């Protein structure tokens, strides 16, 4: 495990993000920008703060374990956006910022008098990143949008799970993180546009569209063939062999759907004739006989341990892999060699292991400087050092519950 430096090293060093919003779709975008070196100032309301602080199934010493990751590298301040004095803090920050990030229901920022028109009048170069369930426009834009609803509308939920039961979910909030990832891409594209023109713009990332973007040829499949994709469990229909196969002591993923790789797998199975069997010789033929082919492979894999299968496939040039959980990740030498897991000091819990910054850049790699801080931990620092507020002004803000 490597411990990261408190100094930003990524390519976005020197850029400032003002993050509003709570939970995941907006804050994960802030995490990604902070990972790449940006200074992220997270604004939380004074009553509760981000509910993500309490999320997670395990809370050692009363500490949530998700917030330290999604709020890593961020400076947390408290300011009440429902009060004019709190809104003025945002406006003052925007004057010397590069991005404003929010994931409220569309219209909320406008209701508070801090919409894009207002903020861009203060700073024409500001890039406003807006993440929502349905986008900023359209007949559904006013609705509350959660990741689960966006995943369903975007087509993702319908195809997840086993064919004989209700749709499943990914086990993570994939709709939120996909939307945040697309928001980050949009923010970086807008940054390049600003470099050329000096003008900022709005980035409108919708959860349902971010899921929909992943849906491959779903629409033309129906348009030209009246074909609707259905749930297929652990396989992709007509892509074979590529599945999870049982070992004598566990399971292994084997992906040998390419013709040449399938030939190698048949050889490893001691059944080289299968590679030339008309039922399995081509990609299309294997797709048509997917079920029976998986049974043939499973009959072989059940006679092997997971380790022996992994060794045989690796030596034979057939892609394969174990099904990892946290224990396997922490023990894996490849994770260790690439420092995919780092350890950062947490003020209460000590050494805190988490995923590193991805992707890796050769010249300006991102880094993790600190875990998600306490609520309001940086309020005075930001108000005094960045905005230049004096003690009298700060006390006046406290008196009206603006901070």
Automatic annotation (TrEMBL):
Signal peptide: none annotated. It holds the Pfam family CoA_transf_3. InterPro entries: CoA-transferase_III_domain (IPR050483), CoA-Trfase_fam_III (IPR003673), CoA-Trfase_III_dom3_sf (IPR044855), CoA-Trfase_III_dom_1_sf (IPR023606). Keywords: Transferase. This is Succinyl-CoA--D-citramalate CoA-transferase. It comes from Candidatus Phycosocius spiralis.
